[in-house]
Amino acid sequence: xxxxxxxxxxxxxxxxxxxxxxxxxxxxxxxxxxxxxxxxxxxxxxxxxxxxxxxxxxxxxxxxxxxxxxxxxxxxxxxxxxxxxxxxxxxxxxxxxxxxxxxxxxxxxxxxxxxxxxxxxxxxxxxxxxxxxxxxxxxxxxxxxxxxxxxxxxxxxxxxxxxxxxxxxxxxxxxxxxxxxxxxxxxxxxxxxxxxxxxxxxxxxxxxxxxxxxxxxxxxxxxxxxxxxxxxxxxxxxxxxxxxxxxxxxxxxxxxxxxxxxxxxxxxxxxxxxxxxxxxxxxxxxxxxxxxxxxxxxxxxxxxxxxxxxxxxxxxxxxxxxxxxxxxxxxxxxxxxxxxxxxxxxxxxxxxxx
Length: 354
Ligand code: ADP
Ligand code: MG
Fold this sequence. Notes:
Strand order of the largest sheet: 6-7-8-3-9-10
CATH architecture of the largest domain: 3-Layer(aba) Sandwich
Structural class: alpha+beta
Strand content: 25-35%
Helix content: 25-40%
CATH superfamily of the largest domain: P-loop containing nucleotide triphosphate hydrolases
Radius of gyration: 25 Å
Number of helices: 10
Bound molecules: adenosine-5'-diphosphate, magnesium ion
Shape: globular
Distance between the termini: 39 Å
C-alpha cells in the first residue's frame, strides 16, 4: 500500500506563508519512508494532512492508489503514533489497545484475541493489566504502537514517536521498530528531525525545508549526493568553505575541487565538508606544493573521537573529527598548523548565505 501525495498545500492564515507548500512525494509500499527536516519545516502538518486531521487547500492524498483527500480520519484506516503517548491513563494496557476495536464494535472474543496478538507483537505480554503510569516511557510508546496496529491499518504514520525518550531508549526503540517493520511489512511514514534515525531506519528519505520537499531519495542519495546547499548543510554536520572558480576549479584556500558544469570563471563557490571527510597530517612544506593548512583553534575529545576546530587562511572555520588514536599520534596542540586533506566535498555555485 503506497502513499502518494500530490501538490499538497496548507496555509493556516490567509496571505501567510504556507506550512506545507506544493508538496509531492511517494512513500513506496512496504518500506519505511522518513520525512526529515528541522523544526517548523511542515512535517507534522504534512502527516496530519495524510491521516486526515487536516484538510489541504490544494492537492491530493492517495493511499493504495485511492484518493482519500476528503475522507474523515476513521475511514482512512491508518495507524498513527505521536510523540506524546496519548494513552488513556485510566485504562489498562489491554483496554488501551482494545480501544479502536471497541469503537469499531468488533465482537468481544475477536477483540481479546487481537489484543493478545498485539501484546505479543510489541513484546509486552506480561504487562496487559498495568496502567500507563506503571510503565516506562519506552513501554508506553510500544503500547501506542500496539494500539495503532490493532485496527490492522493500511499504513502506519509516526510523528517523532521516540522524540520524548532519552538517547539510549531511543536507539533501542529504533532497532525495535526496524524489527517490527520486518515482521509486519507495513508501509510506514516516519516524521523525524533526527537525521541519524532517518538514515538508519528508512529505505526512502524525503527531506523538508520551509514547507517544501528539498530532496527525496535513498539514504545514500541524500547523504552522498545532496541536491542543494540546504541538504548538504543539514545532513552530516558539514562545515562551509568559500572560494571562487579559478582555471575551471573551485579554489578554496589552497584547495582546488571539481566544480559543477555551470560554473563560470571567477564566480563565487562554496563547498560543504563533513567532519570525517578531512584527514589531518603534520604540516610539512614540500617544495613547489602548498599544502592546505589550517590552524588548530580548539580540540575536544568526544567518545572515541577528537573534535578539532580548524581555522583556514580564508577565515572559514572547519570542524574535523579524528579518531582519538590518530589524533594522539599527530601530537598537535592548539595554535599548531596542520595539513588538511579533503577527501570529499559537495561544491555549489554562488555565495553561501544562511
Ligand atoms: P514540523 O513538524 O516540521 O516542526 P509543523 O508542521 O508543526 O512543522 O509546522 C509548520 C509551520 O506551520 C510552523 O511555522 C508552525 O508554526 C505552523 N503551524 C502548524 N500548525 C499550525 C496551526 N494549527 N495553526 C497555525 N500555524 C500552524
Ligand atoms: Mg512536528
